[in-house]
Amino acid sequence: MRRRIAWLAACLVALGVVGCAPSPSLPADAVQLMMKLNAAVSGRDEAVFTSLTNGEASSGIRAWVWANLGMLGQVTFKSGESDSLWANWQLTDDSLPISNQVGSISCADNGCHVADLGPQSGAPAPIWLVQPLQVLGGDSATVLASPGTSSGDAWVSAAQAAQQAVAGADLGDLGASWDGTLTVELPKDASAFAQLLGLASSADYTSTGAVTRIEGSPDSSLGPAAYIIVNPQTTAMLTPDEQTLLITHEGVHVATADTPVASGAAWVSEGLAESVAVAGSPSTAADEQTLAKASCNGGLTPPSDAAFGGTDVAGQNAAYAVSQVLVGLIRAHLGAEAMPAISQLWQGEAAPQVDLVAWSQAWCSN
Ligand SMILES: [Zn+2]
């Protein structure tokens, strides 16, 4: 009895300082966990964030993930099926939201906590969960890179030039819903690049300069969010002009992300992107004309969707060159009416005003 009283008294005295519980109490269920976690993130309370994300799996990256979260315009965590943890996030308040699976939660008798916060196998990871970040550039052309990335400024210049090239191109209805911004992610190494794509390895991307990821919005009333991921394995030696060419090509994919490309119409999308890109690089345009000429067989056949994938570099280069020439022929022959025709072909519709057979035969015989 005395001992109990003594213990109680000791506890009451201590209460004002640290409380009586042996450790901070965890939220009782997933709903309360999400409320506390989101309040900690929006209120920038790192101590609470740390107490709620105390899983061993996330301990090594928690400090820089916390710093990265402070750079985002918005982020809201949500629990999903099978104890999965999701984040709906926006780079800026004006960006379109993206939803990613970012970990898992665990509930036991003593409450719920985030058991894992990090890239999930088989799911694309947000870059803020993959590496420490620095936000470079401005509103219309933003580059996300590791702090101290030596090529960061060069990619900002390339992204700015690409943004202007895409904004100045006539993309017709295909570009109508673009907000005019480009976001470029620079993963720090091949493993980070694979994690951003949700892949175990980036071995299939040894001939890919960059990828445009299109993420459906968690809000069905909004369009998809699209962003560019540069492949660190293939881009270290690019000149500034080559960087601009690459980002301009991907920038067209970003600007046209709202309209799905029909099966079999990859050449239309790739040809349009490449034609906008080479418009700023006469020497590349000339090289591609030469490459396409080598593919002439009476005329030019639109490449199959598969021709743009895989690791056959020569085959891919020919596919891009032929597609660029074919889209260029449509533009040259139809002028102001070219974009509606390109849009029809893009969506798998017939475009009887386009006569690629005759036009490419004439081009090949020149
Ligand atoms: Zn492309």
Query: Would you tell me the overall average pLDDT?
Result: 91
Count of separate DSSP helical elements? 12
Total domain count: 3
Question: Biggest sheet, open or closed, and with what strands and sense?
Answer: 5 strands, mixed
Question: Number of DSSP strands?
Answer: 9
The rough form would be described as elongated
Q: In brief, what are we looking at here?
A:
The chain has helices spanning 2-15, 30-42, 46-52, 62-69, 152-168, 190-197, 240-255, 266-278, 282-293, 313-334, 338-346, 356-364; strands spanning 74-79, 84-90, 98-108, 111-117, 134-137, 141-145, 182-185, 210-215, 225-230. It is of the alpha+beta class and 366 residues long.
Question: Helix and strand layout, with pairings?
Answer:
Elements lengths: L1 H14 L14 H13 L3 H7 L9 H8 L4 E6 L4 E7 L7 E11 L2 E7 L16 E4 L3 E5 L6 H17 L13 E4 L4 H8 L12 E6 L9 E6 L9 H16 L10 H13 L3 H12 L19 H22 L3 H9 L9 H9 L2
Parallel strand pairs: 6-7, 7-9
Antiparallel strand pairs: 1-2, 2-3, 3-4, 5-6, 8-9
The protein binds zinc ion.
Question: Please, could you describe this protein's structure?
Answer:
40% of the residues lie in helices and 15% in strands. It has 366 residues and is α+β, with helices and mostly antiparallel strands. The protein folds into three domains: 19-121; 130-258, no CATH class; 260-366, no CATH class. The chain has a five-stranded mixed sheet, sandwiched between helices. A four-stranded antiparallel sheet has the order 1-2-3-4. A hairpin with a 2-residue loop joins strand 3 (98-108) and strand 4 (111-117). Helix 2 packs antiparallel against helix 3, helix 7 crosses helix 8 (266-278) and helix 10 crosses helix 11 (338-346). The longest helix is centred in the last third of the chain and has 22 residues, at 313-334. Bound molecules: zinc ion. The site of zinc ion has 4 residues, from helix 7 and helix 8.
